[in-house]
């Protein structure tokens, strides 16, 4: 997935129902002129027997729908509408994965979906999380609906092989443009990947009964039927993967494979920093009760700064589909911004990434980013935007933001399935029933089937097989913001940003970066270092800072691998033990997406990242694992 994403080119055709979008690239309509929603309900929902199958899901069942061609999202919204009507009142969940080479712009998507007022509230939620046109996978979570969506942007031939899941796709919407218009989407290697992701019991539906579709499915042992199509269409395709002894049976009343956990498992999370809180929240949102154990208060470690700046160091577009910082940043913004009406977790600010000798920006390699992600700013534009005396050009990051860690922790700990317990866990003891936790005051009277270790540098004490993490000391400084403080956050090798504390504007700036130092004492020399970083950019502002004796500060220890990527996943030699550690200085960007990956691995779900990126993050990697072959 190395090519930039080009958005769809749309022509609009007037119709009694409203404006109909037509693809300029493929010369075909996105949905039926007769009634696109009714066609989706007939072909894809009824064609996969979804009203009955979804209504019969048991507690903790996980049902996956796959789609070729996201288009306007109409199929997803129709599935969501059905899910609302038939979902059981239990912890079953519905997930959809879809691929799209030419995504609609947000404006075109809004215009296309306006034709369906009955879907308006769902359309609004989809639009609120709709990703920018960056290659790779973007997970949208609608937790209150027990629903999630992975949108893979890129060529299907590149995306589908990178999808990883222990759970098969149970139903497919084969909904690209017609084979005559878009033959690439119906070629054999695409069908090979669709079958790879499927299993006995998987069903398939399509508006197309073209020979290439039927023959491709039958070549894999899929039973194909051709019931009546929608409207004036004589036929549609309805197929299923039969049991081995029913290859010639056209009866579609077959057994359906469904991934299930019949009862809630007992889960312990050790550590209440951003890693532990994110893991607990990802699992609680799935309906699993979680107990968090920490020797101190939440966010006592490296996660406890007054604000966290969410602004990535962008990578060239050819690498973005596997760039954890960019993908994690976007995920954090999507998932925590959903709380904005009730909590101030995310403060949307925008931000300037300054081009300096210590923080050089290769503008030519970032020029093709969509403007909603990054725009090159001249020194004049930087001055005007920041309302300071900056003399350097910069990247304007439209979606940069400040995150309030305390607000985030409050939301997680208020979840009815999350409980916090004060205990210093010193050892994990395995028994026939699971894992017991030894603490500084004795063994806890509880057994857990799954344990997640989120204790940064101390993780290796509980999991000796983990690779070594290195300590990096970082001290932040903050004080009453002097006049002339920047109107938006600035990143320059260090960073600075304004925030409010006790009704007063504060200027947060720093941070020091001292390798192999694991002490958390406040140091005058670190304050001075932070002031020097600021003075290199804005000397007048640094000179106007109040007396150093009035400054506040906080030193914390970041844990980091040599490859700068976190450890995520199963711990070698400890069955049922998992780890999320080594987040370094990017914890608030990394943790939510990594926690989602860990939960997916633990429960056998679809991964929210590519197989290639998941492999890079595995907890079993060692000091010399960077060049190992990726296994899918």
Write up this protein.
- This protein is of the alpha/beta class.
- It contains 18 helices and 32 strands.
- Strands 16, 17, 18, 25, 26, 27, 28, 29 and 30 form a nine-stranded mixed β-sheet that branches.
- α4 runs antiparallel to α5, α9 crosses α17 and α10 packs across α17.
- The longest helix has 17 residues.
- It is globular.
Query: How far is it from the N-terminal to the C-terminal residue, by CA?
Result: 16 Å
In percent, how much strand structure appears in the residues? 15-25%
Average predicted local confidence, pLDDT = 90
Gyration radius over CA:
26 Å
> What's the main sheet like?
9 strands, mixed
Helix content: 25-40%
Poorly predicted runs of 5 or more residues: 246-258, 623-632
Summed up, the helix count is: 18
Class by helix and strand content? Answer: alpha/beta
